[in-house]
Amino acid sequence: xxxxxxxxxxxxxxxxxxxxxxxxxxxxxxxxxxxxxxxxxxxxxxxxxxxxxxxxxxxxxxxxxxxxxxxxxxxxxxxxxxxxxxxxxxxxxxxxxxxxxxxxxxxxxxxxxxxxxxxxxxxxxxxxxxxxxxxxxxxxxxxxxxxxxxxxxxxxxxxxxxxxxxxxxxxxxxxxxxxxxxxxxxxxxxxxxxxxxxxxxxxxxxxxxxxxxxxxxxxxxxxxxxxxxxxxxxxxxxxxxxxxxxxxxxxxxxxxxxxxxxxxxxxxxxxxxxxxxxxxxxxxxxxxxxxxxxxxxxxxxxxxxxxxxxxxxxxxxxxxxxxxxxxxxxxxxxxxxxxxxxxxxxxxxxxxxxxxxxxxxxxxxxxxxxxxxxxxxxxxxxxxxxxxxxxxxxxxxxxxxxxxxxx
Length: 407
Description:
With 407 residues, the protein is an alpha+beta fold. Helix content is 40%, strand content 27%. It is built from 8 helices and 17 strands.
């Protein structure tokens, strides 16, 4: 056998080894092997097959670079390695480092950059490279190939993880929406004493708005409108607990400040101060026509009567933020026939762009006075129509409106 045949056989055996290495790497990737094991396989190929005695492999992670593989020699700080690679930013293809004057780079033989859409996504530095001279180019190209295979695998892992996270969040939002829909009471109520209408317009699948209406006894009604900080399942769970607590205390306690104090302790105990609730809560006795209310840091409800509109601001601060509420000053009113109370959450006023000149509390008060003689349902529709026709900016939060007309 002549030297030409020997060289051909050696080349064929090398190609076979390369294919076997790629096959093993691909099989591992298809089995979704853990990232550390994948990196170990890369290092085994570099050490045992390519005869690379020293390797540094950096990949982009957000706005930074991390070193996911390193062996051989004295380890450098990742930041210094990155700066050294940036020193070669004009090099777009694998290049030898002979003659490069740099305290870090001079310890390596080759530099392999990986670019994607003109952005460097990975760098590899190779040192103590013992490949035969006639195979150096082949081995560097193969090294570049396996680096690309590993990078694609890592990117697919990241995308798969993001998809799972997205699906998990979507399912969480669906569960929260289902839970919230069970918490929202009937959106209309009417008898000989009051006429109630409510609208809930979520900004996303689920938000933090909540309202409730309870006929306490033959003479009294209680209603509440609230806004829970946060979104998603945690907000829905807090709302569920809040509703259960509210209804439990209403069944045994008729003093509104005491109910609010109890609710504050319950919310604080459940959230450890990490979430809070703003709310407006009121009790109306149709026999005495007396209304008692507490505004706990919420958008003031608006009372319309005899052509005038006033905000109901008496009460306390938000609940769930303090061990003890610093004060509770309930408001008391006599409700005249034909009066209307409009309750809403801050999403009614908040928009994507600055619309404060055309839509704010003052203009809302004007709308209330203009439409206060309507029924509860027609009043809500009039407010929402006014916003649609005059405020073009999109809402940035949930919108809840709750209106009561007193007979």
